[in-house]
Specification:
Layout (H helix, E strand, L loop, with lengths): L3 H7 L5 E7 L5 E2 L14 E7 L1
Antiparallel strand pairs: 1-2, 1-3
Length: 51
């Protein structure tokens, strides 16, 4: 049986999504944020996820 990832690849249903989160506390932040609203850290990690 094919996995979900294989099925999505085969039928071209890949949607990229950008996720940004604070490296200090792990809070998810908007892509426009330069600092974490919870802990005021400027260390924001950006991940491009394709699913």
């Amino acid at each position: 049986m094919a996995s979900i990832a294989t099925i999505f690849r085969r039928f071209g249903r890949r949607r990229p999504e950008t996720v940004c989160e604070c490296r200090r506390c792990g809070t998810t932040v908007e892509t426009t944020e330069e600092e974490c609203p919870v802990c005021d850290s400027a260390e924001i990690a950006t991940y491009q996820i394709t699913h």
